[in-house]
Specification:
Length: 302
Amino acid sequence: MNNYIIETEQLSKDFSGELAVNQLSIHVRKNEIYGFLGPNGAGKSTVMKMLLGLLQPTHGSIKLFNKNFKSNQNALLSNVGSLIEEPSYYANLTGYENLQIIQRLLKLPKENIDKVLKIVKLYDQKDKLVKNYSLGMKQRLGIALAIVKFPKLLILDEPTNGLDPAGIQEIRELIKSLPQKYDMTVIISSHILSEIEQMATTVGIINKGKLLFEGRLADLEEDEKYLFETNDDARAKKMLISKGFILDDEKELIINDKRKANIAFAIRLLVKNDIDIYQVRMVRKSLEDVFLDMTGRKGGVS
């Protein structure tokens, strides 16, 4: 038996002949924060809805807690909390009353209400009508509603959408605390790399329904390269290639090698052949550049 809380195999969803999710296989381990990253419209929400039984897969399978989802759906979902797209609440009730409805429906201990209100930092606002909450408070209430049963798995779809920087930081710190403090596994979707980068231990990158990458964000970082600026780049390139150096296919002179001894040799070679070197500097693509290249979104992530 493996340690996966979520495991999908060749998961697909077809809407009128168009594949929104295409043979997706993801693996989410216990007590990790799994960042589900991709441009808007990539298929993230569709996957999350299938994980919750809100949509039925066209093909493929889902396992939660090492059990087949299709044949154990009700039992498995009792250990899952979720916030999809935006919180659902009764605006004319207080925050406490909204949580009380869920607590009574699920026959949960009454003390769970105060516990989650303290976790999401809404305890002092519990008697305030939700229609008078700020957007950030409504998002925190949505998370409180999702975790009031203290689930083993929490599924969050773009939970920081529309929040200001302070609100984003609050939600981020809250999510980061859940695995260690409350034994929860979290899968969180976003189209914002910087948000996932600060929260997730593992990422899955999806675009046009297909999984492009799954692993640690650090594994996406490219090795260092060195940019040379000379008085004759064309001649310098020919000379370096003749000596076995691998150059990037760029207009600039970039040596694809991070070994300092080789860079020193390249410098000596060019100087010896009367090529003036104006600058040598290390370059590397940012994670955002790698992500944009991978998803083909040169103009922006969202």
